[in-house]
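User: Quick sanity check before I run a bigger batch. Here is a single chain. Can you write out its predicted 3D structure?
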Amino acid sequence: MNSVPSTPGRRSRTPSADIERELIAAAEVVLLRDGPGGITVRAVAAQAGVAPMGVYSRLGGKEGLVNALLVRGFDLLRAALARSGKPADPLDRLRVSGQRYRRFALDNRSYYAIMFEGVVPHDFDAPQVAEHGQAAFGELVRDVELAAAAGVIAAPDSREVAQQIWSCVHGAVTLELQGLVLTPDPEATYRGAVDTVLRGLALRRTAPDEPEPRRYS
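Assistant: Done. Predicted structure follows.
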């Protein structure tokens, strides 16, 4: 479950070098306490014990706050995917990555909402956000590369296959978060979805070449 950091006390004076770090920590407190809708310049400034102008001068206002939270969210996701304990078998490794993605989403709903559900306007193309997002995606790409190198899936383009896998698991997780899983055991359904994707990739490696699609004039 999300854990809310303790509320920092108001200080009479904050060292300049620490203001940005404290603002980001305050933004996380507000996000986890009040949800994405609670992220405002005024709320974060009050939480950090600084004047609202400090948010604009240090982070560029609300956009900067949201970007900082996106960076934090992608770092948390990357850490969840990369942490030790993955099995040696490359297919099982992909299965574990899928389970960790779902667990991250369920345990960090506020972060997941601002990262992927569009509840707060944001810019994925902002350089720092893009860098950290690509780093998180890179964990899945590496797992795909390992499976392809072992010959257990077909992945001539590892990024393309990683994107296909992410599209499937993200869709399944989003349905669950929205309460739209109509089966009695959402976790079992999710595991089955991941297995279906991996079976498809495994079958693809031995399938004969497909004929060129028929073209109509």
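The chain has two domains: 16-60, 72-204.

User: Great, the batch can go ahead then.
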